[in-house]
Design brief:
184 residues, two-stranded antiparallel sheet, alpha+beta
């Protein structure tokens, strides 16, 4: 029973970790190297993240600089950023790419807040699915005689407590990110 609860907790934590990762890639009007993590270039026939072929640094609050270690890939990096869904256009001076993030409009902020809420809801659904799967396994364990009725009730309560804890954490993360977006 305890092993099942530990696995459930770990699976729920992975959902939270994924949400944090998704939130880190939401453009908040500030330069953040995490925005480029999912963008890959074709580097000698292999899809490679930009961070593995260049140094990425925050020059100013709204400016990222990308300096490739191999100057021949600067055009590939520029093209990959332009075709990504970030909606930004890097400036190329031949050696360094500069990405200047424009300030967010009020409408764009509201769109981003909706996206944040949607991601939070999806995470809550995933957490509840993990709870449902755990409950099914616990009931199967009771049916097989591995758990008593009291143990089952206790395990179900602990599973619900875990679910409540992770749903609350999701709400806290969502609120913090929404506040961050609206205060920029």
């Amino acid at each position: 029973m305890q092993e099942q609860l530990t696995k459930t907790s770990q699976r729920m934590q992975r959902r939270i970790d994924h949400l944090v990762d998704e939130y880190s890639q939401i453009r908040a009007g500030r330069a953040n190297p995490a925005l480029l993590e999912k963008i890959k270039i074709d580097y000698y026939g292999t899809p490679t993240p930009i961070s593995q072929v260049a140094s990425i640094s925050v020059a100013e609050a709204r400016t990222l600089t990308i300096q490739p270690w191999d100057a021949s890939v600067i055009r590939d990096i520029e093209r990959a950023i332009q075709t990504s869904d970030l909606g930004i256009n890097p400036q190329n001076d031949g050696k360094i790419l500069r990405i200047i993030f424009p300030p967010l409009t009020e409408d764009r902020r509201k769109e981003i807040v909706k996206d944040i809420s949607k991601l939070a809801e999806e995470t809550k659904v995933q957490i509840r699915n993990v709870r449902r799967e755990c409950m099914e396994k616990l009931k199967a364990m009771k049916k097989d005689g591995e758990l008593t009725e009291d143990d089952l009730k206790q395990a179900e309560k602990k599973t619900q407590d875990l679910t409540d804890k992770f749903v609350k954490k999701t709400d806290e993360l969502s609120s913090a990110k929404q506040k961050e977006i609206m205060e920029i």
